[in-house]
Here is the input.
Amino acid sequence: MKELELSGASEVDFEIEDIDDEDSDIEDEDEDEDEDEDENAEEEDYDEDWVSALEDNDQDDSDGTLGDWAKLETMHSSHPMYFASKLTEVASDDPIDWMEQPSDGLAIQGLLRPAFIEEHSEIQKHISTNQSRSSDKHQVEKVVGDKVEDVSIINGHRNGLGSSEDNSTSEESEKNEISMNGSLFYKLQMSKIQLITAHGHQTDVELEDFKQAQPDAIAHSAAKIISRLKAGGEKTVQALKSLCWRCKGIPVEEAAIISVDSLGFNLRVCCGTQIQTLRFTYNARATSEYSAERQIKDLLFPRSHQKPQKRRTGSSK
Here is the structure.
């Protein structure tokens, strides 16, 4: 009996332990499921936060602040046309000569209107000038015959020729005739002029100064002067470097003249990683090609102004 009781008790204990083990396994599985659910919930929350962050960025981009290119800081330091040209140069395979000075631009704002009859003489002057510059006489005759057959007609009106009755009766026919055989002339009334450098710097130009401006005296001779100076070779280059040090106090590694006018010349210099343009002026305005070249050489090769000492000769008595 005692053995049966002991065996029965042990079996009951084993059954209880088995039940406890099953309960613990179920609890572990429940905990694992809870942890998986928590992880999935955290991942979903993270994804939602990421999506909301992207939506916020999209809203920031669409609010118009970043879309307005004119308000960006880079627009104040570099002109869009200059930036685009540099992108084109870098993308192309052609070598870039950094010593060349980019050309400046001119922005003109104004109103375009049809020409008045009172401006007939000015239009005639431009027509005659254009005809005289043409090298092909047959082409000039064709242009005169087809486009300006009757120069006295300007935008459908005659320059005071004939009576007023004839003008009133033939006004419609003249308008039809000008569209076929004549030319329409327009005049630009300028209201604002800006000089835009290659680096984006804008300078306003006075309209009165622009109207009174005259062509430079040596505009057509600048290329010849620069060519003759470059023919000097290393001697001219060393003189240009010395000029930069004497007048500007800048030690340069490379120097080249890029433009010459009646008031002075521009020098493109390289110093380390910096490239800039220096301006040198003459002592007096040059009125001819010879005068400009002489003043440039005087700056490059200054003469010594030391007076020679006179020898004293003793008189014999």
